[in-house]
Amino acid sequence: MKKFLSLSGIIALVMLLAYQCDHPKAKKLSAEKEESLQWLNHHDTVSYVGIETCMQCHSGIHQTFIQTGMGQSIGKADTLKSIAKIDGHQKLYDSYQDLYYQPFWRDNTLVLREFRLGADGDTLHNLVQPIDYVIGSGQHTNSHLWQENGYYFQAPFTWYAQEQKLDFPPGFEEGKNSRFNRQIGLECMACHNAMPTEFVKGSTQKFRRIPEGINCERCHGPGGAHVAKIMRGEITDTAKEADRSIVNPKRLSAQMQFEICQRCHLQGNAVLKEGKSFFDFKPGMELKEVMQVFLPRYEDSDNRFIMASHADRFKLSACYQAHPETFTCTSCHNPHISVMSTVVSNFNQTCIQCHSANKAQIMCSAPMHEREVKHNNCVQCHMPPSQATDIPHVTVHDHFIRKPQDNRAPVSPEASRFLALLSINDSKPSARDKALAYLQQFERFGAKPLYLDSAARFLNEVPKTASEHLYLWTYYFFLSGDRESLYHFGAQYGLNHLLRELTELDYENKDAWTAYRLAEAYQFKGDTESALKLFERSVDLAPFIGDFKNKWAALLNAEGQIARAESLWKEVLQEEPYHRESLNNIAFLMLEQRRNAEAAQYLKLCLERYPDYLLAWQNEARRAMQSEDALALKRALEAIIRLDPQNVQAKEHYRKFFS
């Protein structure tokens, strides 16, 4: 049953607002804060209703909106959604892993084939993965997702629209190809899609279902209260007053409008405030109430930008800085109409409002012949199409409005000195926020020691009494690879205290991760009893993270609790049939018990999916020897020697049996 804001709830909220308006403390609130309190759909009982409900009354806007980049942000991988010119002959080659990728259509289903060829041209590896979703409007790219049991992953190919080119996605190039294993979690989905209200807590990337495209409620907030109001026959004359049951961005201040846009157009290192999730931001709020977005600053940051950094770049512009209360994103962009359908003169008209001919001192100073070459297009010179640093084959308009620069070519981060991480949407981040920003930067964007050094500096400013003190320091020691210090840090609390402390189930799985990281440290120190209890707690809090169950099962198996370990591995594989370590570990367990036929099934699936997994090949060699399967043994030993040329034992076995 859908939840709507009850009449009594509305009355109570109105009374509360009246009290706040009269109370002296309320006068200290910022204008934006007061403004946000007036929207009834900020209440956490108000549900999302979906674009299908909105279109019943707003069909005209719906028809144009679904053609925008937002409306086309994600959809089923069929020939209607895909803009890729795939004829079945294009191939990508990963020279680092010696793998080819070939997308093709099977009826109306997009499929990706991954394969490897031997020196004689024979196919050594062949994997065919159906693709479920196309992500991206097609204005710049189409990337691709596949899912199994609601667990979402990115596939290793992207179509780049501007160059009409097939290539690897950002982050998959230059030896970083994660193949079919890049998880698409809540943070990714929360910007590239409508609010995904059916995310499964206790997971990193499991959804009961996902919408298909960003919708109305991303900019207007959840529509449940508004629909309930209309269904009661309560119609507001919006020409005279605001309808407070749903946010109309036009009625927000310029800064609060900007907050809506920068929720997703301020790409970077998003650090959630304590107790907040990616579900918590609603239009009419300040983004910093929910998260801070950090970006690295370099010596040449003026000339480098990432794809979705529009808000950051725009704020650098003198035009914006001179008119922050009037110049916003919607000064140039109508969010209900595709930018592809908007004529250039519409954008230039915004410029002319200030830089008109009757304001000679600020009109364009370029020679007339240069202006004619550019067709008097202000954007072409002052916001030129430029290469983003994070996505290949894509040029976007740099939203840093300024005089034409001589050299706008991006410089790689390695070629410029790093200065600091800067919070773009909050000028006063706390020590906790800055510490977490550097920890996340290390884990997600490059394991540079200076990030950990900076994190430690700010962590020392976080009081020991802070509720996240345990989480933050555990995170730090774990990323540092310092299991010894992590163990001693946990031991200061004591196991019983840790188990009492680590009890919260949330979208970020913070307590679950803390328990898991501490368990690894206790296991490292040989305290198996404590490690088992902490692994169990991590699984209780995050039952849909296969890595947690796998590690718990492995330790149980080592301690002789074989039946329980087998049961846990089967639970993982019921959820995630391609969980690599669980496939290999359960096969190892079965080989120990001489259950070779069962082991063969798991190893076959594992090696079909992960052809370069050394441990699985070693288990396959053992299985082949136990089963006296000479052909399988030869294949396994050849694979082991290919992956580990210094493996003396594999070479000796190969000489003994096949030379």
Count of helical regions: 27
Q: Describe the sheet with the most strands.
A: 7 strands, antiparallel
Class computed from helices, strands and strand pairing:
alpha+beta
Q: Tell me, what's the shape?
A: globular
What's the assembly state of these chains?
A: single chain
Helix content class = 40-55%
Which ranges are low-confidence, i.e. pLDDT below 50, for 5 or more consecutive residues? 1-34
Radius of gyration: 28 Å
Mean pLDDT: 91
Span of the ends, CA to CA: 70 Å
The count of strands amounts to 16
Proportion of beta-strand residues: 5-15%
How would you portray this structure in words?
With 659 residues, this protein is α+β, with helices and mostly antiparallel strands. Helix content is 41%, strand content 12%. The protein has 27 helices and 16 strands. The strands form four sheets. Strands 1, 6, 7, 8, 9, 10 and 11 form a seven-stranded antiparallel beta sheet that branches. Strands 2-3-4-5 form a four-stranded antiparallel beta sheet, with no helix packed on it. A three-stranded antiparallel beta sheet has the order 12-13-16, with helices on one face. A hairpin with a 2-residue loop joins β3 (99-106) and β4 (109-117). α14 (431-445) packs parallel to α16 and α21 packs parallel to α23 (580-592). The chain is globular and about 90 Å long. The chain starts with 6 loop residues before the first helix and ends with a helix. Mean pLDDT is 91; it is low at 1-34.
